[in-house]
Automatic annotation (TrEMBL):
Flavoprotein as UniProt keyword: no
N6-(pyridoxal phosphate)lysine, modified sites: 273
Domain Glycine cleavage system P-protein N-terminal: 36-300
PANTHER family in alphabetical order: GLYCINE DEHYDROGENASE (DECARBOXYLATING), MITOCHONDRIAL, GLYCINE DEHYDROGENASE, DECARBOXYLATING
Tagged with keyword Oxidoreductase: yes
Transmembrane segments: none
Protein name (database record): Probable glycine dehydrogenase (decarboxylating) subunit 2
Group of enzyme by EC: oxidoreductase
Assigned keywords, A-Z: Aminotransferase, Oxidoreductase, Pyridoxal phosphate, Transferase
One annotated Gene Ontology cellular component of this protein: cytosol
Organism of origin: Metabacillus mangrovi
Top-level lineage group: Bacteria
Length: 491
């Protein structure tokens, strides 16, 4: 990468240089004052970069090469499911009949698109064991909030206004307590036991007449299957609460087990994770919510229904919690998920689960001699290691993550879940080859050895990236997002 590539686009400016050329005007130029109110007219130049088309191409192409994505390398970010996004999804989403329709078109003119959404809902009902599904929520956390608002409406309709508490395990994804809080609930933590599962005695202790719901993911965020789920469901239902399933990462149970059969009343899915929507860097996502019978009437409106051969949106839903998204969700990402489900078929989805679990267990067992394994049992689609041993040598988990950048990998999730010290959470996903898994394992083993023999190389990593180690707190809290011109660049 040459010096020019590292400059900001503003610094590449040569006054008067443009990236376009237009023919001379054949008509007199209209005066701005005749077109716009005086107050809208700019008094000073905006100071935009002045560069040629070729320079601008090179600048942004160089920047794009610094990006890391699933298409450029392994991305084992736990609880994120960075798996391959099949390109056939993109082809289908770009079909003119799907990509060029407008959300305000008459229903008669978009029956095919509505059929696709309806079929997707039917597939998701079957996959989750739920009785109705909405595709409106735009992401996982949005689905959580939507589901909790429905649970709230259900309790209120029953006069159960004292149900103000949502129980979440200490290993829960951060969005769970956040969504519960935004939905107006208080969160209560239930502890995990030494095997990494919800402590049943503690659950019995915290459950009661004030319980609105238990929010859970299964397998949990440590990648472990909550084998007492039926007993847990009975405890919560007996107390009058509902069970909420965080189904963001379904690759561990897809086509094998269904939240509906485990006793859950509400579930959200992340189509941008499990169902191969490209994600990371902000979306767009899709977080459909499925419910059992007694929550159907609270679904956000409109509800997509089929009457004979015709699809229509039903707005006449007096008990609905309202709308949660303009129109009917993020259409493009739903098209991709539909394509994925149809191309995989039931057997394909079963294979997804088997490979996701096999890959995670293979990697966990091969790394276990080199890193602490807090829960020494079969994992599902992901697993956690602890960097405790390396910390004693002065190498923190953050250092290990930074060192992985030198090997060309996106680091795993670190310091999460919170109940594991120096946590390293790895989700290899089912789409990676054994060669890729082995290469990553070798890198992790090399780093473990470096921590013993040559800790500085890990502590000072990364060594090969464009930007070396950032002050992460400063970068997050005081990001410099605006270009401020200092002095003209001369070269
Ligand atoms: C990713 C994730 C979420 C949040 O989903 P978003 O789409 O990022 O809002 C919730 N729970 C779990 C377990 C997740 O992995």
């Amino acid at each position: 990468m040459n010096n020019q590539d590292q400059a900001l686009i503003f610094e590449l400016t040569k006054p008067g240089r443009t990236g376009y050329s237009l023919p001379d005007m054949e008509v007199p130029e209209a005066a701005l004052e005749d077109l716009l109110p005086e107050s809208y007219i700019r008094k000073t130049e905006p100071g935009l970069p002045e560069v040629s088309e070729l320079d601008i191409m090179r600048h942004y192409t160089a920047l794009s090469k610094r990006n890391h994505g699933v298409d450029s390398g392994f991305y084992p970010l736990g609880s994120c499911t960075m798996k391959y996004n099949p390109k056939i999804n993109e082809n289908v989403a770009r079909l003119a009949g799907l990509a060029h329709i407008h959300p305000l078109q008459e229903e008669e003119t978009v029956q095919g698109a509505m059929e696709l959404l309806f079929d997707l809902q039917e597939h998701l009902k079957e996959i989750t064991g739920m009785e109705e599904v909405t595709l409106q929520p735009a992401a996982g956390a949005h689905g959580e909030w939507t589901g909790l608002m429905m649970i709230r409406a259900f309790h209120e309709a029953n006069g159960d206004t004292e149900r103000t508490k949502v129980i979440v395990p200490d290993s829960a994804h951060g969005t769970n307590p956040a969504s519960a809080t935004v939905a107006g609930f208080e969160t209560v933590t239930v502890k995990s036991d030494e095997t990494g599962l919800v402590d049943l005695e503690d659950l019995k202790r915290v459950v009661g007449r004030d319980t609105a719901a238990l929010m859970l993911t299964n397998p949990n965020t440590l990648g472990l299957f909550e084998e007492n789920i039926l007993e847990m469901a009975a405890i919560v239902h007996e107390a009058g609460g509902k069970l909420y399933y965080d189904g963001a990462n379904l690759n561990a149970v897809l086509s094998k087990a269904r939240p509906g059969d485990m006793g859950f009343d509400v579930v959200h899915l992340n189509l941008h994770k499990t169902f191969t929507g490209p994600h990371g860097g902000g979306g767009p996502g899709s977080g459909p919510v499925g419910v059992k019978k007694d929550l159907i009437k609270y679904l956000p409106k409109p509800v997509l229904v089929k009457e004979g051969d015709r699809y229509t949106f039903d707005y006449n839903r007096p008990d609905a919690i309202g709308r949660v998204k303009p129109f009917y969700g993020n259409f493009g990402i739903n098209v991709r998920a539909y394509t994925y489900i149809r191309t995989m078929g039931p057997d394909g989805l079963k294979a997804v689960t088997e490979y996701a679990v096999l890959n995670a267990n293979y990697m966990m067992r091969r790394l276990a001699p080199y890193y602490d394994l807090p829960f020494d049992r079969h994992c599902k689609h992901e697993f956690v290691l602890s960097g405790k041993r390396q910390k004693k040598l002065g190498v923190r988990t953050l250092d290990i993550a930074k060192r992985l950048l030198d090997f060309g990998y996106h680091p795993p999730t670190i310091y999460f879940p919170l109940n594991v010290e120096e946590c390293i959470m790895i989700e290899p996903t089912e789409t990676e080859s054994k060669e890729t898994l082995d290469a990553f394992i070798d890198a992790m083993i090399q780093i473990a050895k470096e921590a013993e023999d040559n800790p500085e190389i890990v502590q000072e990593a990364p060594h090969t990236t464009v930007i070396k180690r950032l002050d992460e707190a400063l970068a997050a809290r005081k990001p410099v997002l605006r270009y401020e011109k200092k002095e003209p660049v001369t070269n």
